[in-house]
Amino acid sequence: MAPAHSGTAARSARLVCATVEGDQPMPSALDPADTLPGDVGDGRALRVLITGAAGFVGSHLCEALLAGGHDVVGLDGFVVSCARPLKEGNLAGAWSHPRFRFCERDLAADPLEGCLDGIDVVVHLAAMAGLPRSWKEYQLYVDCNVIATQRLLEGCRNASLAKLVHISTSSVYGLDAVGDETCPTRPVSPYGVTKLAAERLVLAYVANHGVPATILRLFSIYGPRQRPDMAYNIFIDALRNGRPLTVFGDGLQSRSNTFISDCVRGTLQAIHGAEVGEIYNIGGREPIILNQAIEWISECLGVSPVVVNAPGRPGDQRHTLADTAKARASFGYRPRVPPRLGLRLQIAWQLGATGPAGGRATGAPEP
Ligand SMILES: NC(=O)c1ccc[n+]([C@@H]2O[C@H](COP(=O)([O-])OP(=O)(O)OC[C@H]3O[C@@H](n4cnc5c(N)ncnc54)[C@H](O)[C@@H]3O)[C@@H](O)[C@H]2O)c1
């Protein structure tokens, strides 16, 4: 990547990509018809509790389930991973839906009475995500990723659930996350350690208390509403505003990035099709090398990036590449969105070009 230049080009950043371009149609990435597998509820409306509902992934999942005719209880504690108005904005689409109800609870501390009443399926996304911060705020990660999971599992023991889908991460594998679910788990960050502990707890509750849980290991999700602490969000924001980018390491690290609609589709498929006690990788269609992603984003915005390389951070993964054959065989998971298109869709969202459902929501609901 040729580091370059000028604030002027950056300041005139424009959306040169978020339109339909000849050979590459721009689908609505989060179109419910595309996203929802038909058999999610085996033909009946489910009542689904989504923890972490106000987050990046959780808010999309709420909307997809509501669009599919299901009842959704969204639970979130507005834990300090990013500003509360941003999370309330994530929920704006679900908020006005007649089948949506919201429970504001800190899973690590608040009583959960009532939250699980009548629930068929739980998707447990609530967690402190993000790796660098986990070195400094370990207690918060233990509380939100381990204690919160244990308290939810206790609640689930007495609920008559059809399925608990526990959301984990490729970070449990360690420095490299390349291969299938049998790869050794050797996390190299406190975040990965707490997420692995949560997985082990889930499996202990499956074995000892019959909680019907399954585990999905997500690989680096991106797309509209991506958290502001995540790399592509930071890069797009810097490039469109003419700021230099900091790349930790040589930029040759690669990610099995998963576009949000693929992640949501895989999760919905798992509700019905995943086996209790099993673990599945949910990853993207093909890996992206970081320098390549920066080049694509820059091209798309019509700017030249100014890149500052900094030493790699402790706990950062080097390469991730999900083997998703098990998820494909068990519930038909197939990632669809190629990285270049996915990045364009995220850029379009960050530039506010995708309208109220995809842009940064402004009307915050009253939780
Ligand atoms: N985004 C990714 O790239 C990615 C990759 C792998 C795994 N995951 C996993 O997916 C899940 C969702 O990630 P995300 O990117 O949407 O994160 P997010 O921070 O946007 O959403 C998580 C939500 O959980 C809530 N939460 C945290 N602790 C809570 C608690 N104690 N009680 C109640 N609510 C609480 C937060 O307030 C937040 O709204 C997490 O479990 C994360 O580990 C995400």
Task: Note down, in words, how this protein is organized.
- There is one protein chain.
- The chain has a single domain (7-358), classed as NAD(P)-binding Rossmann-like Domain (Rossmann fold, 3-Layer(aba) Sandwich), CATH 3.40.50.720.
- It is built from 13 helices and 15 strands.
- It has helices at residues 7-11, 32-35, 56-67, 84-90, 92-95, 138-157, 190-209, 231-240, 260-273, 290-301, 325-331, 339-350, 355-358; strands at 47-51, 71-76, 100-104, 121-124, 163-169, 176-179, 213-218, 221-222, 245-248, 254-255, 258-259, 279-282, 288-289, 307-310, 319-322.
- α6 (138-157) packs parallel to α7, α8 packs parallel to α10 (290-301) and α10 (290-301) packs across α12.
- Nicotinamide-adenine-dinucleotide (NAD) binds at residues 52, 54-58, 76-79, 81, 87, 105-108, 125-129, 144, 148, 167, 169, 195, 218, 220-221, 227.
Which terms would index this structure?
single chain; 367 residues; alpha/beta; Rossmann fold; 7-stranded parallel sheet; two-stranded parallel sheet; 15 strands; 17% strand; globular; disordered N terminus; disordered C terminus; binds nicotinamide-adenine-dinucleotide
Q: What would a concise description of this structure say?
A:
The protein is an alpha/beta fold.
Question: How is the secondary structure organized here?
Answer:
Layout: H1 7-11, H2 32-35, E1 47-51, H3 56-67, E2 71-76, H4 84-90, H5 92-95, E3 100-104, E4 121-124, H6 138-157, E5 163-169, E6 176-179, H7 190-209, E7 213-218, E8 221-222, H8 231-240, E9 245-248, E10 254-255, E11 258-259, H9 260-273, E12 279-282, E13 288-289, H10 290-301, E14 307-310, E15 319-322, H11 325-331, H12 339-350, H13 355-358
Parallel strand pairs: 1-2, 1-4, 2-3, 4-5, 5-7, 6-15, 7-12, 8-11, 9-14
Antiparallel strand pairs: 10-13
Helix pairs in contact: 3-9, 6-7, 8-10, 8-12, 10-12
The structure holds nicotinamide-adenine-dinucleotide.
